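Task: fold both queries, return tokens.
Query 1:
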Amino acid sequence: MDHDAAGQPQLTSRLYAIKQMESAIRVLLDEALAPLDLRVRPYTALTVLAVKGDLSSAELARRAFMRAQSMQDVIRTLEARGLVERRAAERDRRVLLVAITDAGREVVRQGSVLTAPIEQLLVTGTDPDALAAFDAVVAHGRAALARAVQQSRPIPNRSAPGR
């Protein structure tokens, strides 16, 4: 953890900057998705299903960065709108999978058109080499954090004595 001149702990500047970006992106995405009567979390669930295919609700929650209970609420809402459906898995009929419907795929298509300007805003004016480096750092960080979350291991404390 970084410390200020007085030795007080501060948020790591990169993490804070990423959180600021995430907050701004969420606001902009919610605004962009409003014509579809969607917010970020349900749209994220739909995009995950569009890319990954049928998933259990627990796996969908993990991949969409949500808690299982929150995902159940999202699935119910999307199911009521006809954007997803639940069906038994072929291998184990006791397992229910969430599947995107054709209507859900159309919403993802429309959403991608509505949200594309936000991503363009993020990168406009960025040097191609800097953008490639940014993409590499994001990919590395995303993979490292995903492994840490998946393994539920604590993040190493590099400032701990003996390190």
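Query 1 returned. Query 2:
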Amino acid sequence: MPSNSTTNSAGGGAQFTRGRDHTILRLVILAFLLCCAKVTFAAETVRPFTQGSLGELLAAREGKPFILVLWSLDCQYCPTELKTLSELRRSHPNLDVVLVATDTISDAAQLALKAETYGMSQAEQWVFADDMPERLRREIDTRWYGEVPRTYFYDRRHQREVKTGLVNKQFFEQWLAKNALSGATHR
């Protein structure tokens, strides 16, 4: 009898180990699926920017000031620009920032994840979705040849001021004051 008891105990231990291995495998699969779901969700938050999208952006913001930022995954200075805007949005919750990436629609998930790491996941996000990006660049600005970051500051009448390269925080603050977007004074 005692030998049976030992055999059962050893067999039970093997089953326990297999059960634990299956649990770990299930957790790994669940983690993988959650990551896939996050990437899919992230890709869905980035809208395709096609001909006519700029008009759509402007119409949705009629009478409201906003900042349009053109950026790219390959841009050396874009992370700094987006992090600065993220800081400004924390202190100015009414600041409307629209991100338009000059990458391709196939980069949508990566763009959303990068924007999230820069603190800009709540900003409206678009990505170029045209076989000829030159058409989109021309629609945005006939004087723009693709350099990024490029930032457009739209006032309430949608008169715009353009900055290429990094914009210093002082300019942002001046623009915010001029457009009556005060910081969070009460929360």
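Both queries returned. Flag for query 2: Residues 46-178 form a domain with the Glutaredoxin fold (CATH 3.40.30.10).
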